[in-house]
Structures are given as C-alpha cells and as structure tokens.
C-alpha cells in the first residue's frame, strides 16, 4: 500500500487533481467553508482509502488530505499537524515492529508528500519554503506547480527553472529519482531525465468529461480552446500518475523505509538509551556503590536494579550499532544518512561518557 499526503492552500485544485489521478470522487459530500470560517481555521487530517487497478494489478492507496492548510490569517507552523501525523505513523510502526507479533504489521507510514505550489506568485513563498524544510527530513517531497492551465508554456518553463533554483538555494531536499545503471536501456535513461527536468510537475485536474472532435476526455473548455488533462503537451499529469502508481511507487516506499524511517528509529533508540543511562546514574548515586559491579557482588535489591539497567543499556547500544542506516542510490540521501549516522555515534559516545 502506498500512502501519499496532499498539502497546499485552498483553491489550488488539490481535490480535483486527486479525483483525476485516481478516477474517483473523494469529496462528494464536502462542505466548503466561507471566508469568515477560514479566518481561524485549523489544519485537519483526513484519510481516504481507495482501491485502483493498474495493468490487472489491484493496488490500495491511503490518501491523506490536509484541508485548512495555509488558509488562516496566521499560518505560523501550519505544517505542524502534518509533521505530527507523519511522526505518529512512524511511532506506531516502531511499536508494532518492536512487539512480539511482527508478522502482520500494517504499514501506514507516509511514503510521499505532494506539495502544491501556487502559479500566481513569483516563485516559492515563505510558507512554501518553511513547510518543505520542516518536512523534508521525514518524507519524500514531490513539488507540484498547480493550475498549470492558467499559464502559458513559456511561463511554465520559466517558473519551473526559478522554483528548482530556489529549492536548491534554500537547501530543500525533495525526492531524488534513483540514478540509472550504466547498462540501462537508453530509452529508459531518457525517460528518467525527462522526469528530473519536469520538477516541479505542472499539473491540471478536471472532473468534467469534455467532448471534442468525436473524443471524450477529462479536460477544460476555454474561449481559446480545450485543455486535455492527460495530454503531455498540456501538462505533466500523466507523468505524475505513472510515477506514483507504476514506475516509482516501490522506490518511494524503499526510501521511506531505508532513510526516513531509519532516521526516526535510530533517534528513538538513542533517546531510550539516554533515558536508561540517566536512570542508571541516579541509581548509582543513590546507592553509593562503585560501578560497574562484578556479577558475584549482586546481592542487594538496589545492586540488582543497577546491574539490570546496565544490561539494558548494553543491549540497546549493541542494537543501535548493529542496525546501521542503509545506503541508497540517491545522492542527497547517501550524504544525509552518513551524516546522520556520524551524529548519532557521536551522541552515543557523549551519553556513555556522561
């Protein structure tokens, strides 16, 4: 199961795009709040589970929507609800993974974040930068240029260049497509390069079937012509859909497991170890017994507790060092993982010495 989360302010076509991507109607009974209601609106987390069939294979997706994002007067830390939700799914998986029954663990971890960027500004806004920087260590961010049918082709091209430059300038780590092997087919390499050059994906959504020249398709009619959602000349919609449900779904899940979740897991183990070391030190100070204790000297109840605490710390340390962060073919995640591991090992040495 793949779990994407949808983030972006109201009016950027999030609902319409999701309905178009997965040929469904998730928001049939939704009530749209008026301007007064939006002033103090908070970000909600709404989960939809749908089933789709792709080339005869049935897939299940859990789509996490965030209505209310960026709609309030004060949007400071409006992404906190999204961050908390991602952490909650990591925490639940960590608890299940650490339990006795690990055969049927349900994976609800968030595998990608579709971030909608307004086409009406001059690039990324402060809320875009702050939100993506707050979340890029936790999830695969895929930026989307919303409502691409409101722009000319030249405007789409220039905005993409500017947004890619700003993403790099502000140090935002978006999802990196895996590097092709040297023996890969040339056509495959070309398609991968097209994907990389298309970031942020310029997308259009529509719930309306348009009849034009004897064909019916999802699109929009304008005085100057008709926009076809799945026409690659008009938008990157088809490219995004193929990436999510065909070509890169497994890689998104792999990066989540090997990088983002492993970082969270290592941090949890480090925090648990620190708590146990502090608890052990309190027991030592309270008992006035030299430490470490020889095994034969474990006579009193206090000494037994100290010995057990020390054993728990040793087990956790060996567990941490025995589960290094996995490497991945993504350039930025390799450096990120190595740096994270170095920081964790340094912190662990400080814990032991303290």
Question: Explain this structure to me?
Answer:
- Belongs to the TRAFAC class TrmE-Era-EngA-EngB-Septin-like GTPase superfamily. Septin GTPase family.
- It is found in: Cytoplasm.
- Residues 1-271 form the Septin-type G domain.
- This protein has 354 residues and is α/β, with parallel strands linked by helices.
- The chain has one domain (4-271): P-loop containing nucleotide triphosphate hydrolases (Rossmann fold).
- It has ten helices and nine strands.
- The protein has helices spanning 14-22, 35-39, 80-98, 126-135, 153-169, 186-197, 237-247, 249-287, 301-321, 331-353, and strands at residues 4-7, 46-54, 57-65, 112-117, 141-145, 201-202, 209-212, 215-222, 225-228.
- It is elongated, with a radius of gyration of 25 Å.
- Mean pLDDT is 78; it is low at 291-299, 323-337, 339-344 and 347-352.
Return the string of H and E elements: EHHEEHEHEHHEEEEHHHH
- Whole-number tally of structural domains: 1
CATH topology term: Rossmann fold
The strand line-up of the biggest sheet is 2-3-1-4-5-6
Described by its quaternary structure, the protein is single chain
Structural class of the helices, strands and pairings? alpha/beta
What is the H level of CATH, i.e. the homologous superfamily?
P-loop containing nucleotide triphosphate hydrolases
**Terminus-to-terminus distance:** 43 Å
- Specify the overall morphology: elongated
| Unreliable residue stretches | 291-299, 323-337, 339-344, 347-352
C-alpha Rg (nearest Å): 25 Å
How does the major sheet shape up?
6 strands, mixed
CATH class: Alpha Beta
Q: Could you estimate the helical fraction of the residues in percent?
A: 40-55%
> How many helical stretches?
10
Q: Kindly report the average pLDDT value.
A: 78
How many strands appear in the DSSP assignment? 9
Proper CATH architecture: 3-Layer(aba) Sandwich
Strand content: 5-15%
